[in-house]
Amino acid sequence: WQSPFRFARSPMTELVTPSPEELSHRRRTLKKQRRTRNLQHIWRVFAIGGLAIGAFWLMRNPFWLLLQSDDQIILNGNDMLDEAAIYELLALEYPQPLFEIEPEVIVQRLSTQSPIAAAQVDRQLFPPRLEITLQERQPVAVTVPLQPLADTNAELTPTNHAGLLDAQGYWMPQNSVGVNREFNVPALRVRGFHPRYRSQWPQLYRALQTSEIAITEVDWRSPSNLIVQTELGQVHLGVFSPQRLQTQLATLPRFRSLTDQTNLPAVDYIDLVRPETPAVKLVNPAASASDSP
Q1: pLDDT value at position 261?
Q2: 3-class DSSP assignment, residue 61
Q3: Cα gap 46→55, rounded to integer Å
Q4: Beta carbons of 252 and 242 less than 8 angstroms apart
Q5: Which tens digit of pLDDT belongs to each residue from 214-235?
Q6: 121: which strand partners?
Q7: Which residues pair with 139 in a beta bridge?
Q8: What is each CA distance from 185 to 35, 48, 110, 124, 278, in whole angstroms?
Q9: What DSSP element (H or E) covers 281?
Q10: Beta carbons within 10 angstroms of residue 279's beta carbon
Q11: Pairing between strand 139-144 and 189-191?
Q12: Neighbour count for residue 240 (Cβ, 10 Å)
């Protein structure tokens, strides 16, 4: 029986013995590689140890995480408030470790101040600084007190101290706000503003904004008679009523002739207490009638 498979015979592998020079060169190469690996290991140990020691020292002595002055505080959104006034509100003592500053505490401190509606505080490590973004209360009117305050230690209120009023009826003392010199104070004046009017002011202000006749002053000294100073003169509106005020202001353009004509008698005020039957009060109707031909 003969196998169908045939096996090829390979020649015997020849063993080559390296020369002494080759062995010496190989030993030198291996020794050099071991030396390089040892040096790399030593440098790696020193580098890791140095970083660990440096990090521990920086944590114990974080001189690079200190706020040294107000120059490291970045303020955004302060169009009305002066920077010096904001720094005074922050009440930070220097040097101040950055990690010891609690943003929530600063937000609470700033938000309780009347000129600031909301605040956001962010800490930045590199470079170390504090970034504060403010949302200010935008004043829309200046309040004139009924009786100027005589006692400097008394509580400041709209009735005894001049102030600023925003569109929501939030009042703030004017001289304690720290207003920027470049900020334009509102032209609208409000006399006799009282805290009890705060809920009514937003409706009144929105209505004044829609008036075709320019209004420069609101006199709220008498709760039974709201008076506004307009380009046509003084206008009496009676007890404030949001529903009736729209009709009263819409009636004002009908009296433009009072200023267009120069031969009319002097007008004391326009009476719009009942807008369906408006009236004009003359300064001295008897004298005006006697002077007329």
Answers
A1: 67
A2: coil
A3: 14
A4: no
A5: 999 999 999 999 999 999 999 9
A6: 132
A7: 166
A8: 78, 61, 22, 35, 34
A9: strand 279-282
A10: 11
A11: parallel
A12: 19
162, burial (CB in 10 Å: exposed 0-12, middle 13-18, buried 19+): middle
Strands (E), 16-158: 66-67, 73-76, 96-97, 116-124, 129-136, 139-144
The three-class DSSP label of residue 158 is: coil
Q: Which residues fall within 8 angstroms of residue 144, CB to CB, at 6 or more apart?
A: 162, 189, 190, 191, 192
| Cβ neighbour number for residue 188 with a 10 Å cutoff | 19
Residues in the chain: 293
Phi, psi of 139 (to 5 degrees): -70, 145
Give the sheet arrangement for strand 233-236, strand by strand: 171-173, 163-166, 139-144, 189-191, 215-222, 225-230, 233-236, 267-271, 279-282
The per-residue pLDDT for range 160-214, each reduced to its tens digit, is 888 899 999 999 887 766 777 778 889 999 999 999 999 999 999 999 999 999 9
